[in-house]
Amino acid sequence: MTGIPVAIWVQDLWPESISSTGMVRNPYVVSLVGRLSDGIYRGCDRVIGQSRSFLQRLAKVGVAKDRLEYLPNWAEDIYQPLPAPSRTEEWERGFTVMFAGNLGRAQALDTVLEAATMVNDDPEIHWAIFGEGVLRGWMEGEAKRRRLPRVHFLGRRPAAEMPGLFARAGVMLVSLKQDDSLAMTIPAKVQSYLACGRPVLASLDGEGARVVEESGAGFASPAGDAEGLADNVRRMKRLPEQERERRGKAARDYYIRQFDRKLCLDKAERILTELAAEGRQP
Questions:
Q1: Is the pLDDT of residue 231 over 80?
Q2: Mean per-residue pLDDT for 203-208?
């Protein structure tokens, strides 16, 4: 009614995000939220997706293709490559697989612990788990039950400390459970890992796995495939240090080409400027 054009930047697809995370289980409520959200998407003059797969899903619910745009997330400026400091902590004594972020139901933490169990015969492999979430207590209890002394739970740290911690890992880990909607997203930690120039292992499907492999930063295995993740941990550990450094550099180069903050903001400005010039569309 005001004649002002409207744009929406979709970070999570609804209703898929609330059902895949278990936030809402009632099918009636999920259906209702779906109808409401689809109507909102169709009513906007520009619908911007954080991954290319989002655009396919949005087109299926009736958003015209000429109203769709792709704009990925970027990492905060604090995420930069840093030199690795001297190793002083127990979790650094060997080859460290580091996970940083929410310890929730979507992160397939059972797959992570199963993979850790499979490589537990190698005393050089450590797992550094940074973060908090509803499943931290379960993870700690399960790691104890499985007798995994080299899985270390290190809690939440300030964001400013994370690049320095990333530099102390042999490889960074991103994982999600098997779910069609999660496969369409790029987890935000992927950009942070790449921005810091670290090699990456992905235990997930779809867009996130594609980015990790396309960048040359590391290896991907399907969501829920603990054996595949364990194999990739051993594979990354076997690489010469020089090769892991090369993969870290490839990660940083890919980040600058695809996710650089200025690059993304310039695109956002272009989209909004064009939209303002067009005005409100029927």
A1: yes
A2: 96
Q: Which residues are bridge partners to 175 per DSSP?
A: 203
Q: pLDDT (tens digit, 9 = 90+) per residue, 212-230?
A: 999 999 999 999 999 999 9
Q: Indicate whether 36 belongs to any domain.
A: yes
Domains in the chain: how many in total?
Answer: 2
252 lies in the same domain as 177: yes
- How far is it, in rounded angstroms, from Cα 206 to Cα 14? 18
pTM attached to this predicted model = 0.91
The pLDDT tens digits of the residues spanning 124-170 come to 999 999 999 999 999 999 999 999 999 999 999 999 999 999 999 99
> Which domain covers residue 68, as residue numbers?
7-73+260-278
